[in-house]
């Protein structure tokens, strides 16, 4: 009886976790967010967004963090350690702005990440812009409250 219940529990858990395996490895996402927090500062405790840019084989992540005590957002573009150019300088960039505001950007040849860039945006939407080899991306409104 216990073996049957264990098998059912494992099957149910596999069904719940299967969709996660197709997106980002949780430890990889955790590592990326941890690096972003190191770059932005420990007060940036709220993860607003962290996603793989979706370019097959390139492994770049944008991470948007928020500091609730001062109202600033912080953005970084991070190379995943699976990236073939990890620890090699390649052109990459990240930008952030509030609706109607100016872009705050950082771009250049970096080994691990571009940024951090900051914008004061309490109770406002922010927009991200990222650049990496072979791809450029602009977000829709994010972090709107």
UniProtKB/TrEMBL annotation:
Keywords: Signal. Residues 1-26 form the signal peptide. It comes from the Bacteria. This is Spore-associated protein. It comes from Streptomyces kunmingensis.
């Amino acid at each position: 009886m216990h073996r049957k219940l264990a098998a059912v529990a494992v099957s149910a858990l596999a069904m719940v976790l299967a969709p996660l395996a197709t997106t980002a490895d949780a430890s990889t996402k955790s590592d990326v967010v941890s690096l972003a927090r190191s770059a932005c500062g420990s007060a940036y405790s709220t993860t607003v967004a962290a996603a793989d840019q979706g370019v097959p084989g390139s492994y770049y992540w944008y991470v948007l963090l928020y500091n609730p005590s001062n109202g600033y957002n912080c953005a970084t573009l991070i190379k995943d350690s699976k990236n073939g150019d990890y620890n090699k300088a390649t052109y990459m960039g990240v930008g952030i702005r509030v609706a109607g505001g100016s872009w705050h950007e950082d771009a250049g040849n970096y080994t691990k990440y571009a940024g951090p860039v900051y914008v004061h945006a309490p109770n406002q939407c922010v927009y991200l812009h990222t650049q990496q080899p072979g791809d450029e991306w602009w977000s829709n409104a994010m972090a709107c409250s």
